[in-house]
């Protein structure tokens, strides 16, 4: 397992070097969005309307951060369970989205889309939202402010920690991890 420093936007070359279990530190712009925002994005795609940001080469972090304390760019920013975005994610990967960050396993449909569109799924440590927020330098709402914590944000991050769970080769850390400790 390797350790990688990634800078957004991500390229196919960035994605190709990542394998399940690798640790990554992301610097640059990361967008946020949960199921309500994803539903709105997919509606725009189906209506052939422009999205509020260009997803090509980008990362979406599944998070609904808490309000920022005075002088801080954001509150606690722990990951949301990813399967709630599984019906939407393949549409965004098809448009060039290169990574998503969340927690929990993904559906077979998402794993196939990761292979097809050369993207990855990363996990952030659940329960560590306050710690993760320390890697977020700046945060601004770019779409759907009416969704409150589920609005789409553009965040500037520095050394945001994550682990590769699903790579573009079909690897799955959750499956590999179970195999490693299975007693026969």
Task: Please give the alpha-carbon distance between the first and last residues.
Answer: 25 Å
Q: How would you write the strand order of the largest sheet?
A: 2-3-4-5-7
Query: What would you call the structural class?
Result: alpha/beta
Number of helices: 6
Helix content: 25-40%
Order of helices and strands: EHEHEHEHEHEEH
State the total count of DSSP E strands.
Answer: 7
Biggest sheet architecture: 5 strands, mixed, barrel
Mean pLDDT: 94
Number of domains: 1
DSSP strand (E) fraction? 25-35%
CATH architecture: Alpha-Beta Barrel
Rg, alpha carbons: 16 Å
Unreliable segments of 5+ consecutive residues: none
* CATH level 4 superfamily: Fe-S hydro-lyase, tartrate dehydratase beta-type, catalytic domain
The level 1 CATH classification is: Alpha Beta
